[in-house]
Specification:
alpha/beta; TIM Barrel; 2 domains; 3-stranded antiparallel β-sheet; binds magnesium ion
């Protein structure tokens, strides 16, 4: 068995919305296909990956460095102990001659390749990815069988041009109608007083048993983060996300000393080492705070396995993790590693966001598709985009 082709295509997912830091009107995604010479049902087995939303396509890095290294590797060197193409070995081949540190866009590019490698490995094994991970890749301290359903929350509440509070309330109601019980909205893109009115308006439409998280997308300096923290303390929020710069652990430490409610962060940490620094120096509290590292943006699951082991070793339980991203790769990982949940972006970042067709959100949880691989082809709007990479 060998890889016969690896292709990348850059696809737009633009939307005219903003968080406190960026606008998404020029956003795009790398979609990658690994094609093998293994034939099943008359067609070659293909693994697909893409980068999670919020960071741009990585076609240059993939085409110039990462894909050629895998193509040039001795095919036998990519076959692992199970007799199949092994994601860990593909990962090592792709990272040949790369220095440590400087993670950035390289971590995103590697995440695309790694997602495709794991999709491929699960398809070759003929099982859903969450089952493969539970059988072969989970930490020994993780429960032995994958979770049958995963808690998800609806991330939205962006700032759109000309859109007022009633539209924000209608958006949040629509998430409740879909079956979500926790919703999230952006803050920090408006003055504090205006954001508080937006928060109160959303809380007004949430029934008993539902709650709200807020996300500042790393916008605040410490004084502003603390001012928001003091104001937010008046509300029963699910969490206060990414107040300050993702690498400013001193500021986060100060915030954690001041704000009693749950804090969430981690989506802009792109490596195991950065996640470890967060745990070492961020002052976060293992009994309440939430870690949002997104495997698809940070060297993939192959790297995330090391992060999970580090969390156990550091006195944390991975059930404090709720990965950013809202896609099926992280959903499978959340199931296999018994993470607390997975983000979801209903209706935006289409067609890459969202889960398999025919599996509705039920009381805040979603089940996983029973198909080999990640299950990307089980989403009818995504399947043709994947096939198009090979056209
Ligand atoms: Mg966020």
């Amino acid at each position: 068995m060998r890889i016969v082709d690896i292709r990348e295509k850059t696809v737009p997912i633009e939307a005219d919305m903003s968080n406190a830091f960026i606008n998404f009107s020029k956003m795009n995604v790398s979609v990658l296909a690994i094609v093998t010479d293994e034939i099943r049902d008359g067609a070659p087995v293909v693994g697909y990956g893409f980068n999670s939303n919020g960071r741009y396509a990585q076609g240059g890095l993939l085409r110039e460095r990462i894909i050629p290294r895998v193509r040039e590797a001795d095919p036998e060197s990519l076959i692992g102990e199970h007799g199949d193409l092994d994601p860990e070995l593909i990962w090592r081949a792709a990272m040949r001659d790369e220095k440590p540190g400087g993670h950035g866009d390289r971590a995103v590019a590697m995440g695309v390749l790694d997602m495709a490698s794991w999709d491929l490995a699960a398809k070759l094994a003929g099982v859903p990815l969450y089952q493969l991970l539970s059988d072969r890749a989970r930490d020994p301290r993780t429960p032995a069988t994958p979770a049958e359903r995963v808690w998800v929350y609806a991330a939205g509440g962006y700032y759109y041009p000309g859109r007022g509070i009633e539209a924000l309330q209608a958006e949040m109601r629509s998430y409740l109608d879909m079956g979500y019980r926790t919703v999230k909205m952006k803050i920090g893109g408006a003055p504090l007083e205006k954001d508080l009115r937006r928060i109160e308006a959303v809380l007004d439409v949430l029934p008993e048993g539902c709650d709200l998280a807020v996300d500042a997308n790393g916008r605040f300096e410490l004084d502003e983060a603390l001012a928001y923290a003091d104001a937010l303390s008046a509300y029963p929020l699910h969490w206060y996300e990414e107040a300050g710069d993702p690498l400013d652990h001193e500021a986060l430490h100060r915030l954690a000393e001041r704000y009693e409610g749950p804090l969430a962060t981690g989506e802009n940490l792109l490596s195991f080492q950065e996640a470890r620094n967060l745990i070492r120096y961020g002052g976060l509290r293992p009994d309440r705070d939430v870690l949002q590292m997104d495997p698809a943006l940070s060297y993939g699951l192959t790297e995330f396995r090391r992060t999970v082991a580090m969390l156990f070793d550091s006195g944390w339980n991975p059930d404090r993790c709720v990965p950013h991203g809202g896609h099926q790769f992280n959903l499978s990982i959340a199931s296999a590693f018994h993470l607390r949940g997975c983000e979801s972006y209903p209706g935006i970042f289409a067609p890459f966001g969202g889960f398999a067709d025919g599996l509705p959100i039920e009381d805040g949880y979603v089940r996983l598709p029973d198909a080999p691989g990640i299950g990307l082809e089980q989403k009818s709007s995504l399947a043709p985009v994947l096939e198009d990479v090979l056209a």
